Amino acid sequence: MKTIELDLTGCKYSSDIHERIRIAFDFPEWYGANWDAFWDLLRSECDSDKLIIKGTNTLTKEFDEHIAIFKETLDEYIAFRDKYTKCGLKAFDYEIIS
């Protein structure tokens, strides 16, 4: 089972979040650092079974919208993968540990 650990502790800017995503998911340098780019690479470059997210409780309120979009994107991805499990795509799960 392949698990990705994403630690968002102490992020000060949205670019910090995306850089940590790029590193944790091993996305290429050209990752666009936005939620559309995250969705695109999640579908094509992610072969993980689980994602563990840490440090969301350390983020200020200004990041609430970013975290909401992040979770929505992950939920859409799970639904997408679950729909195509019969075609060989594995299910994906995530857990937020604050």
Structure report:
There is one protein chain. This protein is of the alpha/beta class and about 100 residues long. It has one domain (about 5-95): Barnase, Chain D. About 45% of the residues lie in helices and about 15% in strands. It is built from three helices and three strands; from the N terminus they run E-H-H-E-H-E. It has a three-stranded parallel beta sheet with strand order 1-2-3. Helix 3 links the parallel strand 2 and strand 3. Helix 2 (about 35-45) runs parallel beside helix 3. The mean pLDDT is about 90.
Domain count: the total is 1
Estimate what percentage of residues fall within beta strands: 15-25%
How much helical structure, as a percent, in the residues?
40-55%
Major β-sheet profile:
3 strands, parallel
- CATH class type: Alpha Beta
Highlighted features:
single chain; 98 residues; alpha/beta; three-stranded parallel sheet; 3 strands
List the helices and strands and how they pair.
Blueprint: E1 3-7, H1 14-25, H2 35-45, E2 50-54, H3 64-83, E3 93-97
Structure summarized in a few sentences:
The protein is an alpha/beta fold and 98 residues long.
